[in-house]
Amino acid sequence: MQNEKTIELSIPNILGFERFAMSCTATYAQSLGFKAERIEDLKTAVAEACINAMQHGNKEKRHERVVVQMSRSNDSFMVSVIDKGDGFTGPMPKDPDIERIVQSLDPPEGFGLFLIKRLVDDIEL
Fold it and tell me: Which of 41, 53, 60, 72 lies at 20 to 30 Å from 79 by C-alpha?
């Protein structure tokens, strides 16, 4: 639900453009009085969500876009990252097994969602 407290940013589906979303989100959070360390967490979470949207949701199709919506209501600040994918259903993916990845037993994937879950208060896929 958009209102006057909602900001929407549409970025190209090209790695590197997640930095625009990071910057815009940081500026909005700063205007709301967020502490510097919380803003850094938010920037990392938004960047990871944008990269996941580009790679997995939009399947690296350069003609697609990623939309980032930021909104404030009462005591919450919400960021939505929207892609053209089919969505995600089912349980939350399990965390990567870092030891298995280091030993080259598992592929190095799943770190984006792993980070996001640890940096924000709540996540919905």
Answer: 60
